[in-house]
Amino acid sequence: MATAITKGEMSQPQDYKMIVEKDVWIPLRDGTKLCVDIFRPESTTGATEKFPVIMSLGPYQKDKLWVPPPDLEEKPNPHMNWETVNPEWWCPRGYAMLRVDTRGSGKSPGKSEPSSYQESLDAYDCIEWVAKQKWCNGNVGTCGISYLAAFQWKVAGQQPPSLKCIIPWEGRADQYRDQGYHGGIFAFGFITSWHNRNTAWNLLDQARTYNPDTFDNNMLWHFMRNDLDSEYWRMASARWDKIEVPLLSAGNWSGFGMHLRGNTEAYLCAKSKHKKLRIHSGTHFHAFYSEEGRIDQLRFLDHWLKGIDTGFMDEPPVKLEIRTGGTERSPFRFENEWPIARTQYTKMYLRIDKQPTANPKDAEGELVTKPLDKAATVSYGAAAPTRPGKIPRGASFETAPFAQDTEVTGHIVLNVWVSSNKEDLDIFATLRNIDASGNDVMEMGQMGEPLQCVTKGWLRASHRKLDAAKSLPFRPYHAHDERLPLQPDVPVECQVEIIATSMVFKKGHKLRLDISPADGVGTQHFTHFPADYNQGGVTTIHSGGDKPTWLQLPIIPPK
Fold first, then answer.
1. What is the pLDDT of residues 355-366, one digit of tens each?
2. What pTM value is reported for the model?
3. At the top level of CATH, which class does the domain 18-246 belong to?
4. Could you give the residue range(s) of every CATH 3.40.50.1820 domain in the chain?
5. Does domain 344-556 have CATH number 3.50.50.60?
6. CA–CA separation, 59 and 559 (whole Å)
7. Cis ω before 548 (30° cut-off from 0)
8. CA angle (549, 555, 559) in 5-degree steps
9. In this predicted model, which residue has the larger pLDDT, 494 or 48?
10. d(CA 156, CA 164)
11. 5 with 11: CB under 8 angstroms?
12. Selection from 383, 412, 399, 370 nearest residue 543 by Cα
């Protein structure tokens, strides 16, 4: 029997037997049905005890067992499924789970439309169906990683009455800017791999035996056909003015390649009155399944789905892991707002000292605090296209060694004047942490790999047009609705959005900025497609005089 809970406490494990209902069919408004699994506690007080639901929806097959790595705090069991909550941890705490095969994947029939508007309608119908089950208390929340986070933004915008809160954990929100086109450059590597891998899992794995037409879509063609922002992308993205439900937006500093921007944009833009932001580091899944991560999830869900005053909503709304360099996790710190109010936005001007060399450790200039009266240029050729394993050399700039530990936490902007002998060029900006010996301080990548990168930003120069209504002094917002070709050798000003980060650069370390014509170090599998104009293209960076080129850093003084 569940015990009474006082303020500041949370749901504790009880002696519930877990009921597993496999292959339940949910009818949708258009006559289609989706196949789901339900995991729920059996009432210990007869028919009177009802439970809230944690829902997830995705294309990764609800029946596909995920065997976690041995260092995960959640241990393997027969009910583990990729990027979803673990029923064996949540059911004893009085929660039911609804795990949905999205339309056209796994056991669910229909036309596959990954991350679509239709999917948000389907999710709405699933929420309202499960809320009416006799064992449900009528309250539904959503929780999951990546794809199972991204669907939450869209369904929240549909405002289903029974959806009481969401926990999008490392979830892209803008299909164009976060996933499809970074700065207008097609993010070729991840999405093609993801699409091919999921097609294979559905057609060459067990799913085909019960759903022979599974995962039949032309997603990659549609992505490449719609290479400017349009209603095609808006329908499949978060509508911040429609999201009013309480949310816990959980990002990952290591996730700048796709997901982190969605989590920070949610906190900045969603209409929700009750918003929480937490950002951690490390792999794509360890924090989600950690005891610390699960306790944050539980305290939030207890509050909104069970009405338990856990004290979670009384805490400061922003919880940030302040990285100090290296692959180990760092301590969290609470803040009252995002961006941090005491941020000292500091412009570091790019002083050009020499032309590029073939040595990847060389720097072509310095990052200095004073504007430069004298104009200078540095030029480099474009990769055409980049060969696998070959890191393109553009131009690099370093600060002087920091005289004291210096924290950079927040959004970053690169304002750069560029020209080309071609009609367009690509800007890839990479920030790195260089130690006193001249070596990269490695971070933990999303898949557990060492990563010589703090964060990145991207922009195709023809996409430099800003949306003035949505741009902020610390975060430019590009319209991506038309191309503005370059005139040969005529400089233009570009503001590059560099994805938010947190890093304490230790005394004696340097911050290094690489500006390159294609994917550079720390790209991981988030590679980009090099357009044909890169062949024979020469990019020139202009800095100084009437063309100030600078990197704006969010410096955080001690409290």
1. 999 899 999 999
2. 0.96
3. alpha beta
4. 18-246
5. no
6. 45
7. no
8. 165
9. 494
10. 9
11. yes
12. 370
